[in-house]
Amino acid sequence: MGSKKWRWGVILDAGSSGTRLHIYRWKDPEKALKGASEEELASLPKLMTEKKWTKKIRPGVSTFGKKVDQVGPDHLQSLIDHALQYIPYDKIPDTPIFLMATAGMRLLPTVQQTALTREICYYLRSNTQFSLPDCDMHIQVIKGETEGLYGWIASNYLLGGFDNPDQHQHGKGHHTYGFLDMGGASAQIAFAPNATEAEKHADDLKLLRLRTLDGSPVEYKLFTTTWLGFGVNQARQSYVESLADLYPPSSSELPDPCLPRGLRTTLDGVPVTTPKPKNTILIGTGHFDECLKKTYPLLGKDKPCHDNPCLIDGQHVPAIDFDVNHFIGVSEYWHTTHGVFGGKDDKAYDFATYQKRVKDYCSQDWSSISANFNPKKEHDPKNGQEACFKASWLINVLHDGIGVPRIGLEDLPQANLSKGAQGALEQAKGKGFLEPFQPVDKINDIEVSWTLGKMVLYAAGQIPPESGDDRFPVGFGSNLVGANTATIPDDFQFAGSSWRPIGSSNGGNVTAGHGSDWENDDWDMDAEDILDRAKTRSTTGFFLFLAGLALVMWWFRKRERRMRVYSRFQSFARRRRSHGGKYNGMHSVNRSPLTKLTTKLFGGRTSSGGSYERVMEEGELDRFELGDVASSSSGSGEFFSDEDSSSDHSRGSKGSGGAAGSMFGRSSGLATPTAASGGGIGGGYGFETVGTVGGGMSALNRSGLVVRTDSRERLSLPLSGGVGGVTGRRSRAGSPTRMKSPLGGGISPMDER
Fold it and tell me: Which positions bind ATP (predicted)?
């Protein structure tokens, strides 16, 4: 119950080290609009996810660059199987699936990238029923700038900066948060510059457009860029190469200040245990200050800046105002500060505290460090041996590269917040979100991932625009300075979703067959729906309903009151049947739900097969036929009607016990189905006739003639003229139940009622 109201989305984050599945769910916009409050109408769609809806496998998709035919069965299928465990079967054709590859795939040659994306799309289309209308949009290698933009959406969505901007005023009219991400191969930054910088660097910004539940467009202008090769794994590789350049090529051992003291590894980071290895190895010295100095040149701060200002590797970035630009960092920013070095309970990042922890750890002997490892993933040997380099790289990128103030050592000017905003932001301050930088893994128990931002954009695109105005589509593209606000830039990337209801001719990637969902919304409610409805309805009306119901039940507590109402209802029903009822031969009078309810409440005669009324028009008899049934005469015999005995319908059935002969029932029209305890078909249903015949003889021809000429008249058959006696009864039987009158001579005809 309730599954029809949900929309689902699947996205695969194809990173350099592995592929992670994410499943998201949100309420269908048309159904979310019902009973929505003013606050909800001004908000973005509410997306949900659960921990069990994610799964990561290794290695990354990029490792299949030379074996593309294996990426489907050997890599993707396990993720698809996991998704199918949680998405309802009937929703799969309406569920979009995306695979978006990041830095790992960006490092592959273009030919391998193209071959992989085409093979992935073909495999998903051939082996799943997910919605995949456009391969180029759903299966792609995304740019680092796009990855950063999606991450920016996800961060601000979870922090509430979009829906409640008045509660996140950081000063100078700024209410959004910056986003920092670092993976294995690249690093990203995305933020909205302050008003001065936004005007100065308008050509460098991206225009992002979302849509709230009421259909209103919401626009943001932000800067985003990426540094390919600046992820921790690629940076480590560059560092080892630079370290080797400091020593003669014949050197068999290279002192490494970024490894714990006494640790010996190959240049690829594999621990070495043999006394005299054949190849060059690294020997850890545990000098962290020296490690910081040797990793600093990798920032490329000395490269020429062609468009001031620049931060890292000569790339232009508008000046960051840390008074109002507060950043959150995900992925390696979180793992490197909260993994090996602890700090899980830290409310905010403190540079002085963090640097002390790193120095204490890296100065230890490797034998002491490895002896204290526990089975937890973040404390495994590989993470332990790389922790010192990762910490040095993060510190250099964060503080010397991006310029984040060193909290604990450097004073940060306080933002000029209003008095009201100060109180509203106390909770965010306690979590560190008002500091210049705060590493996070989850916000409100939801993992901060750029994939969430992509799905928020998709869900917002399903909301119908205000007044059907298509001029402001959901998506992002270049910020066209001086252009009309409705102008769509050439590089605009649409959300990929359609706001038209499912089943419409212009529904895009949606499927047909959803029309009934809108009509039967009240039957789709689950417990969560009921709670939602209860929040938006007045409790006063609910209690008035209960009071009225209790009053009605109190009045009906006496049986004589119930019977009085029931008798009036029955009189009304009989008048309606006699004047306005439609009939076609012998048919069942349908019992309405109200009739069934009154029968249960007030009592009354019922039968197991319902209430039947035999009403026939002249000339209709020939086109009505009953199936064969067993004879129910007290003896055995063969019965014939006055029709041609050679007719297919002329012969009756032989047998004993049960109802009268089948031929009699078919030709005369006097057989009425009834529940029977014996005889009939399988003992289930018999047929009741005008008379019960005994002794093997019957005046059936006469009865048949009477039926065909006077079937609409009241019939009264004499009992004295038959052999063995024939019990007559009226043709308009009110009930299919068998009369229990005893047979015998001298029984007077049944009185008409």
Answer: 184-188
**Can you state the angle between helices 232-244 and 381-395, rounded to 10 degrees?**
80
pTM tops 0.70: no
Check whether 184 is labelled as a binding-site residue. yes
Instruction: For the chain, give the percent of residues with pLDDT over 70.
Output: 65
Q: Are residues 129 and 260 in the same domain?
A: no
Q: Do residues 389 and 291 lie in contact, with contact meaning Cβ atoms separated by under 8 Å? A: yes
**pLDDT the model gives residue 585:** 41
Ligand-binding site membership of 188 (annotated): yes
Q: Is residue 446 part of a domain?
A: no
**Strand 178-182 relative to strand 446-447: parallel, antiparallel, unpaired?**
unpaired
Backbone angles phi and psi of 573, in degrees to 5:
-65, -40
DSSP code per residue over 457-509: HHHHTTSPPGGG-TTS-SEEEE--TTS-TTPPPTT-EE-S---SPTT-TT-TT
Question: CA-to-CA distance for 80 and 76, rounded, in angstroms?
Answer: 6
Are residues 648 and 672 in contact, defined by beta-carbon separation less than 8 angstroms?
Answer: no
pLDDT computed for residue 668 by the predictor: 40
Which region, left, alpha or beta, applies to residue 485 given φ > 0 means left and ψ of -120 to 50 means alpha?
alpha
Determine the Cα–Cα distance for residues 254 and 239; give it in Å rounded to an integer. 12
Q: How far apart (Å, rounded) are the C-alpha atoms in residues 137 and 458?
A: 12
Q: What is the pLDDT of residues 39-48, one digit of tens each?
A: 999 999 999 9
The answer to whether 675 and 646 have CB atoms below 8 angstroms apart is no
Q: Is 186 annotated as a binding residue?
A: yes
Residue ranges of the chain with per-residue pLDDT less than 70:
1-3, 343-345, 347, 374-380, 408-433, 499-541, 569, 572-753
Distance CA 98, CA 12 (A): 6
What is the C-alpha separation between 272 and 263, in angstroms, rounded? 8
State residue 595's pLDDT score. Answer: 52
Rounded CA-CA distance 612/185 in Å is 79
Is-catalytic flag, 38? no
In a domain, 445, yes or no: no
Residue 70 resides in a domain: yes
pLDDT at 485: 75
| Active-site hit among 30, 40, 119, 147 | 147
Q: Which residue shows structure tokens 């490092």?
A: 107
Query: What DSSP letter does each residue of 347-361 carry, written as one string?
Result: SS--HHHHHHHHHHH
Residues 269 and 400 in one domain: yes
Q: Which domain holds residue 263?
A: 230-305+342-440
